[in-house]
């Protein structure tokens, strides 16, 4: 890049990011993201108490997964409904749905009402996730966008560290219903602020229509993989593999569909999806690898996960700088994720609590550093060189990729672990092989990341 070109790039300072009307909308989105993080952690913290009081253990797993699955379904439908309603109306409808879902859960006379409330909250979350990506993709220049996405990753840091303690204290003092209810104030407040600023988001074209059957197919495939992963034998393995593979294939179909005719954007969205799948797959079994694989404590397992999350959040705040630095940062981050996963495999393979647990903490930190380096650039690259009016289709696909990767990742490792151990496999070797497979998956992610960030004229554009 020439000095003249570099001089034309907007400054990536926080003042530039938060200036003007788009800065006010960004602040509202960050408040909403912070509130969503607090509430998500609150639900996972106190749901066991609710299940015990309401005698709802049989619905515990379905209730835990309901919000994510309904969000995935909404995002799989594409941006058509959001575009037809308009951003202000979409925010209003999503806020009403969220308030209804939160109220049903907090006032639930039986566990099934918490399940229904979570389904409704998930529908609302899916709408807002697509809208948030559309706002960031259309209002911020390519050079500023990585810094903006880094701020969103940071919004999960404080809730992750102190959220469980605060929600446990609220549940102890006032009951689990209040612990579920109070974060809704943050979420609704943030959404009202979004509604006030939504008019600045450029009008969208909407993109091609997505068949609802694809959304139903993704949710059904994930449900099949989840259900069969708790069984045993060849039929359970067959159902699990069919469900997981179908969910991945349908996800890739949606990504290609949303890429507005650009093979480079297909590479960007697929790399983003792959990084998120690998990270969340590893994160879901990090505590298990410490407690079961190494005989460590629950606290030690939590430290490994916490170290990865903190590293991701803090690295995301580091400004990317110029385009050449952005180009190098994301692939290096993906490589570091792979190296950290190899480290986790070796830590479990050691079989020693004294050696393996500290090694797992270091390896988890490396995975988090890699994700922090890759995530901001990869998420921003989805929108590079894209017309503001064409953002909505890509935005919905990017939100789908991130949300869906949480479930796909946890099924990839957690589901295979359950099936393998129920078939008689030892825990430590199963976890070791799982981490090594994830490390191997980072190789295509690195390649796709490089392809997606190429700027030379005529390359995959």
Question: Which features does this protein show?
Answer:
disordered N terminus; 19 helices; mainly alpha; 81% helix; disordered C terminus; 461 residues
What's the short story on this structure?
This protein is an all-alpha fold and 461 residues long. The chain is 81% helix and 0% strand.
Characterise the protein shown here.
The protein has 461 residues and is an all-alpha fold. The chain is built from 19 helices and no strands. It has helices at 3-8, 14-18, 20-53, 60-76, 80-85, 87-106, 111-139, 145-154, 157-174, 176-181, 183-197, 212-228, 234-257, 263-293, 298-316, 323-350, 353-381, 391-422, 427-452. Helix 4 runs antiparallel to helix 12 (212-228), helix 6 (87-106) packs antiparallel against helix 11 (183-197) and helix 18 runs antiparallel to helix 19 (427-452). The radius of gyration is 21 Å and the shape is globular.
């Amino acid at each position: 890049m020439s000095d003249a070109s570099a001089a034309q790039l907007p400054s990536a300072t926080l003042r530039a990011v938060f200036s003007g009307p788009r800065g006010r909308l960004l602040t509202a989105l960050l408040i909403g993201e912070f509130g969503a993080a607090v509430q998500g952690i609150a639900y996972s913290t106190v749901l066991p108490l609710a299940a015990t009081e309401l005698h709802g253990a049989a619905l515990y797993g379905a209730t835990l997964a309901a919000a994510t699955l309904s969000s995935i379904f909404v995002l799989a439908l594409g941006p058509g409904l959001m575009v037809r309603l308009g951003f202000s109306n979409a925010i209003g409808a999503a806020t009403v749905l969220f308030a209804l879902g939160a109220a049903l859960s907090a006032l639930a006379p039986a566990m099934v009402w918490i399940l229904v409330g979570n389904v409704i909250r998930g529908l609302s979350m899916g709408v807002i996730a697509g809208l948030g990506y559309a706002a960031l993709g259309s209002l911020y220049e390519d050079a500023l966008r990585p810094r903006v996405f880094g701020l969103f990753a940071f919004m999960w840091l404080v809730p992750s560290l102190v959220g469980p303690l605060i929600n446990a204290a609220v549940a102890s003092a006032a009951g689990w219903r209040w612990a579920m209810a109070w974060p809704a104030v943050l979420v609704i407040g943030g959404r009202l602020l979004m509604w006030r600023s939504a008019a600045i988001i450029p009008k969208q074209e909407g993109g091609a229509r997505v068949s609802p059957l694809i959304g139903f197919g993704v949710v059904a495939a994930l449900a099949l993989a989840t259900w069969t992963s708790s069984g045993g034998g060849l039929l359970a393995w067959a159902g699990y593999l069919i469900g997981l593979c179908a969910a991945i294939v349908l996800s890739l179909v949606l990504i290609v569909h949303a890429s507005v005719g650009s093979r480079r954007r297909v590479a960007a969205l697929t790399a983003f999806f792959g990084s998120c799948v690998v990270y969340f797959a590893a994160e879901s079994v990090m505590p298990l690898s410490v407690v079961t694989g190494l005989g460590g404590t629950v606290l030690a397992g939590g430290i490994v996960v916490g170290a990865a999350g903190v590293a991701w959040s803090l690295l995301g705040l580091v400004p990317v700088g110029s385009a050449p630095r952005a180009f190098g940062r994301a692939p290096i981050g993906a490589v570091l994720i792979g190296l950290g996963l190899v480290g986790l495999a070796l830590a479990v393979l050691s079989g020693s609590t004294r050696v393996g647990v500290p090694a797992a903490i270091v390896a988890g930190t490396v995975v988090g550093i890699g994700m922090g380096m890759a995530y901001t650039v990869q998420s921003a690259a989805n929108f590079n060189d894209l017309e503001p009016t064409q953002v909505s289709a890509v935005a919905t696909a990017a939100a789908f990729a991130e949300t869906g990767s949480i479930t796909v990742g946890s099924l990839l490792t957690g589901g295979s672990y359950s099936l393998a151990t129920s078939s008689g496999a030892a825990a430590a070797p199963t976890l070791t092989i799982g981490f090594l497979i994830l490390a191997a998956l980072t190789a295509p992610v690195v390649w796709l990341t490089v392809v997606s960030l190429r700027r030379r004229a005529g390359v995959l554009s």
